[in-house]
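ingest -> validate -> predict -> emit
validate: passed (alphabet ok, no gaps, 177 aa)
predict: started
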Amino acid sequence: MVLLLLMLTCVSSPLTDEAILKVNKPPYAPSFAIGKPQRQATWAGTPSIRVCTSTGVSLSRAAQAARYWEGAGYRFDTITRDPFSTCMNPRRGEILITLPESGFSNHHMASTRLYTDSKTGDIVKVKIHILPKHARKERVIEHEIGHALGWMHYRQRYHIMHPTWYMGGYDRSGIRK
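emit:
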């Protein structure tokens, strides 16, 4: 019976057309590092960033967030804007900033979903969900790009990866590349 449920779950997965991918972290589920910042996965290549216009995140705001991480040694390919209303699915090698899907709680500002290669564990694409009302809020995009780079929440006051926005800051100790 349990095996049948597992099989049905796998068959109904939205990733069945990409069998090599697995969702590394369900959306909106917290993950916390204890002791020092920890990564759950890494990119094999250099990701690009695509911003859906409907999110309210400007191209300059996305570039500013990318520069924050570049200051820690990370690299990004292109940063582009997608004006189409169908902007919902990330491509390989891409961090997509898009609107939330159904089930997103209004108590969240944003959330990140990683897709990893089931053989290597490398991140192959990422989907960041953000509500337009939080598009300009400081540190939100930087924090979510941190998740897109594989970093988990880290409960150190003023740290960029702190799970609580008002307790976070721009400290990036322990997360340099």
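The chain has a mean pLDDT of 84.
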